[in-house]
Amino acid sequence: MLNYYIVDMEKKFLKLNDKFNKQTSLFNDLINLFEENKNQIFKNDTKKISEVRKQALEKFSKSELPTLKHEKWRDTDLSKTLSKNYKYYFDAEENNSEIGKTFKCVVPQLDSLSFTFVNGWNTFESELITLEDGIIIGSFSDAMKKFPEIVEQHFAKTFQPEKDFFSLLNTSYAQDGFFIYVPDNVNSQKSIQIVNIINNDENIFLQPRNLVIIGKNSKLSLIHCHDSVNQKNSFTNSVTEIFLNENSNIDYYKLQNLNNQSTLLNHTNFYQNTNSNISSNSISLNGGLIRNETCVEIEGEGCAANVYGLFLMDDKQHIDNHIFIDHKKSNCVSNELFKGILDDNASAVFNGHVLVRQDSQKTEAFQSNKNILLTDTAKINTKPFLEIYADDVKCSHGATVGQLDNEALFYLRSRGISENNARMLLMYAFAAEVINKISIEPLKNRIDDMVKKRLRGELSVCDQCVLHCGTPEKEIDFEIDLSKI
Amino acid sequence: MLLNIKNLHVSINNKEIIKGLNLGINYGEVHAIMGPNGTGKSTLAAAISGKPGYEVTKGEIVYKGINILGMSPEEISWEGIFLGFQYPVEIPGVSITNFLRAALNEHREHQGLKPLTGSEFLSKLNEKKKLVEIQSKLTNRSVNEGFSGGEKKKNEIFQMAMLDPTLSILDETDSGLDIDALRIVANGVNTLRSEVNAFLLITHYQRLLDYIIPDFVHVLYDGKIVKSGGKELALFLEKKGYNWIKEELID
Ligand SMILES: Nc1ncnc2c1ncn2[C@@H]1O[C@H](COP(=O)(O)OP(=O)(O)OP(=O)(O)O)[C@@H](O)[C@H]1O
Ligand SMILES: [Mg+2]
């Protein structure tokens, strides 16, 4: 039997609004839920990990549910998504793992290894595996069993905001997710692709927890996809911690393609040691409510942090990109570029906060957010923000909001390019600046194709696959009825 | 007659700019329109090309026997009308090559032809590039982005050559060109000029008309064609300016 609880967010949330008191029943219920399922949650934990979780729960109990009254949440309204009922599973759903085996996400010509999670639970047949070059990869729960020291050393060791409701909730509750360990001096040509599929019969609430550690002088390219295969409600509260040791590199791609009923809160925390490089690129194509909270702690000199993003939203979709880059050491460069196209009643938030501390001399920090609004009803709140305490720095920030250029549109049409194609060409040209930052050629081509399809409004046809493979080796055989899509 | 404009009235934002204009162009002819700044030359060109926001309140534009009023800019382009812009638009991120390929293939689709293969397209591209002596690397760049004034104008002629229109309207394509570029542009027009097409040149300088000999010269003033003649009219305007026309109109 499945072991689940219904977290009745609706009533709790309403009550919360009534009193706006920290000790409302939602907290009590969540804490009780935790207490009752402690054994299940702690099943794979080491003592130390359990300790960390308990502390997180302690802090969680003192945190506040984010509402529009909170500065960091003033433009992202969770009340609607929290007013739905979700089921919370404390055990893997056996019946859904089939889709993980049949689901194939193949990026043509890309040398990659793919791992699939369904509804937050891993579907791998084997436990942790070690690749030829020594990379260890598998589920977070297996990692706790097999490499307790490594997990203990890193779990919840990136930036942990004291009062952050959702990341604390994840730290205390999370049971599964991916674990990747790249030993020193490994420069893998292979990309690792993690696919998170949501395929649920009922509304679910899930909390993946991911940990990535990259050794000295090593390089990892990681593709992290979030996708839903049907139209049910879901709430994903995900936390990914990524540690970069000296002189290491990550190429990190987030691909988000979820249905309009889904909420994705996605925390990504980077911890950078000396001379390490990050290139992070989030491509958000679909989703009801997406919040990407990216935090980069630069703890060593000579680091580069490139954080890029592209979002194409329509309907009533909402996307929120919150980026915090903490320059704690000198001689580092950070670079943010986020571009968005919003149609219909879509709304977006960009909040880039760069902190350059007093001793972080010779810092270079650039921020840019550019947006195209296709309708009068689409909305963007953009706030690039530099907080600088050092004096010898080079920083700039800027944001633009505009429409498609009518003169350019007429120019293209006067050459015989029909209106739709002309619009598409202009939108694509706008998006291409971000796509061109993708350094893995086959992936770039794939995303390029997906973006074009999205702009043409063709995506819904291929909704069942994040990378909706145009030329899969063989036909994908779903056991699940997809006719309802 | 290829183009027959009858009693055309055009307004922008409810302000009438073209005020009862008549113009007829036959196959094989080159017409030049001159006239003081702000009298409606570009407005006429844009109205023929179907630019949104240009409201035709009266009259008609008959092209190849059909009234093209109400047709979209792309449809008008497919019918063979080309507009060389007075101010070509910069389009960052769209390469000339991609843009022209898309345009050409839409034209072909409209004609019921298969799209050009990559190599067919490239050989056409190279052939036409030679015609306007355009630098090779220019076509890999984004449309007009960072182009010099002269490069932008040459690029217009290059696009005209690629699309092979029946009626080409060139709005001040000669402005901003150095002597060599002017010769190249004129050369392009003269090469393409034939019995099955026609040109409408909008210009301020009779110099262009030394290179491209027009059959007719018209003076557009206050939204109307107030004077027409042969190429000698251009020479006369060069010497006398437009004041005498204004006086003549007052009389
Ligand atoms: N979008 C617009 N809104 C309002 N008025 C306009 C608009 N476009 C053009 N006009 C006006 O229409 C008139 C004619 O402009 P047009 O560009 O056709 O002149 P032109 O004859 O081409 O001048 P030039 O020789 O300087 O190129 C001008 O007074 C101009 O200000
Ligand atoms: Mg003009």
List its traits.
A: 485 residues, 13-stranded mixed β-sheet, 38% strand, disordered N terminus, disordered C terminus, B: 251 residues, Rossmann fold, 9 helices
Can you give a write-up of this model?
The complex is a heterodimer of chains A (485) and B (251). In chain A, strands 1, 2, 5, 6, 7, 9, 10, 12, 14, 16, 18, 20 and 22 form a 13-stranded mixed sheet that branches. Chain A has a ten-stranded mixed sheet with strand order 4-3-8-11-13-15-17-19-21-23. Chain A has twelve helices and 23 strands. Chain A is globular, with a radius of gyration of 22 Å. Helix content of chain A is 24%, strand content 38%. In chain A, helix 7 crosses helix 8 (148-154) and helix 10 (406-414) packs across helix 11 (419-435). Chain A has two domains: 4-300, no CATH class; 411-485, no CATH class. Chain A has helices spanning 9-19, 25-36, 38-41, 47-60, 79-82, 97-102, 140-146, 148-154, 165-173, 406-414, 419-435, 441-456, and strands at residues 4-8, 85-89, 112-118, 121-122, 129-130, 136-139, 178-182, 187-198, 204-206, 209-214, 219-228, 234-244, 249-257, 262-272, 277-286, 289-298, 304-313, 318-327, 333-342, 347-356, 363-373, 379-388, 393-402. With 485 residues, chain A is of the alpha/beta class. Chain B is an alpha/beta fold and 251 residues long. Chain B has a single domain, classed as Rossmann fold. In chain B, the strands form three sheets. Chain B has a six-stranded mixed sheet with strand order 6-9-10-3-11-12, sandwiched between helices. In chain B, strands 2-1-4-5 form a four-stranded antiparallel sheet. Chain B has a two-stranded antiparallel ribbon with strand order 7-8. In chain B, strand 4 (54-63) and strand 5 (66-67) form a beta hairpin. Classes of the chains: A alpha/beta (485), B alpha/beta (251). The structure holds adenosine-5'-triphosphate and magnesium ion (MG). Adenosine-5'-triphosphate is lined by residues 12-13, 15, 17, 35, 37-43, 86 of chain B.
